[in-house]
Amino acid sequence: MWRIARRAPADLFEELPDLPPLVVQVLHNRGITSVESVCDFVKGPPLPHDPYLIDEMDVAVERVARAVRKRERICVYGDYDVDGVSSTAMLLEVATLLGLDAFPYIPKRLTGYGLTTEAIDVIASKRAELIITADCGSTAHEEIAYAANHGIDVVVTDHHLMHARPEQAIALLNPNAPGGCYPFTGLSGVGVAYKLVQALADEFAEEIPYPESFLDLVALGTIADVVPIRDENRAFVVAGLEIIRSSPRLGLSALGAASGRPIESITVEGIAFGLAPRLNAAGRLAHACLALELLLVSHTARADELARELDALNVERQRMTEEAVVEARSQFTGGNVVFAISENIVPGIAGLAAARISSEFGVLAFMGTEIDGVVRGSARSPQGIHLAEILGRHAHLFERWGGHAGAAGFSLLPGNVEVFREAIVRELAASDLADLFGPRVVADGRVFPRTIAWDTYRALEVLAPWGHAHERPRFVVENVRIGEVRLVGKNHLALRFTEVDRDVEAIWFRNGDKRDRLERSQYVDVAFRLDVNEYRGRSRLQMLVDDVRLRSS
Fold first, then answer.
1. Which of 192, 278, 331, 438 would give a disulfide with 340, using CB separation of 3.0 to 4.6 Å?
2. Would you say residue 306 lies in a domain?
3. Alpha-carbon distance 380 to 363, whole Å?
4. Are residues 504 and 416 in the same domain?
């Protein structure tokens, strides 16, 4: 189903004569509908909010200050994805500046998400007196109590949805905590950790004179975790990208080279589709400590070695993801929910496969495998369906769970899989959410072929960076004639359209099977986004095709 946004009111265009109409239309589609809000957005990102607006920030700062005064040993306990690893790296570097004896702990993916009692036993054996979590901990009630019984305090920095505060946490920093008043709830895990760093910089101005120097890690985790690129996240990404390009960490430079994306000109897309998958591959197929080491490495030779290792893991990850997607497709029998539980869907790639299936069919997708008598997996949802809220309503069925609107991780006993599936089907049947399911293409507007040009691309780039909740604009061009269809790579189509400038090539990823059908067609409607393809030092304007609709000739 294609849905094209309604044109913004004529008076909005009239009151903003200096802005290209497409810019006004795109912002209107994002809910930025007044003259004042449009002007504010175009001016640039807002200033970050006061970190002390997050509940319990003063308590967290005081507890860290006590650790500094008493020279305590602390553990930074991170999640195994890019958001968690970048948070861990930042907090470790800050701990070093404060003179703290700090060490990291990142669990293996197979042991499940978040704090575990087994991990706390290890941390206790290393004589830590304080744990600072990074991108986890909000729902770890029993585990935090277990740590307290071992004489270990826990400060939680997290952003995942939660329903009740862990009672024995010394401080809980989470903009999504019940009753919180922080003005922006879309922070990533590293964004929340950075708010703690900002507050610590006020307390320890000499030790942390430039907290902004950590924004490269904040941008990395923010982009990778697919949180809204709105409000202060936009500011973090803009400033962080500048740091990554101008004074990159050795590990990121090496990873950029390994992925074919020069770090000096890296973009949001370059991080999202180049660096982040390779960093995530460590936690998916090996151990996230490889990614952590890469972010902290100080020797060029080791950085290159780690980058090559992560690149090889990513190749294997791609292969396994394709196999899992094929497996999941075979188990899809219709409806709005897919449950694919198989030995071929390992936890490390379950989320990737779920995302592909959710996008392809427009469904809730739950995927995983049974390990040691427990089904562990990941889930993804179409836009508008709040996945974490759904899991929270059925929390009694899970051994563990965590997540946010579009993505979640879970573990449950095999006997509860069908119980949960049936409960979800009943819940959806009784809801008014039917219009949110099914394959959908949502476009910002229709354009003429002559609009597909560099001037349009440059005009829209004033609204960058793009990301979740502020995606690169999608347009529809209608009734264009196919001039050329070529198969490129393993399963991609390179297209040219007669009415579009010859220098503009289109690419339709993972749709090589449509080649014969398109070659037999003449006129089509195309849903696409404008991007730039950098190749061998040359920049070419490119249409990223999202869908093609055939028309009669």
1. 331
2. no
3. 8
4. no
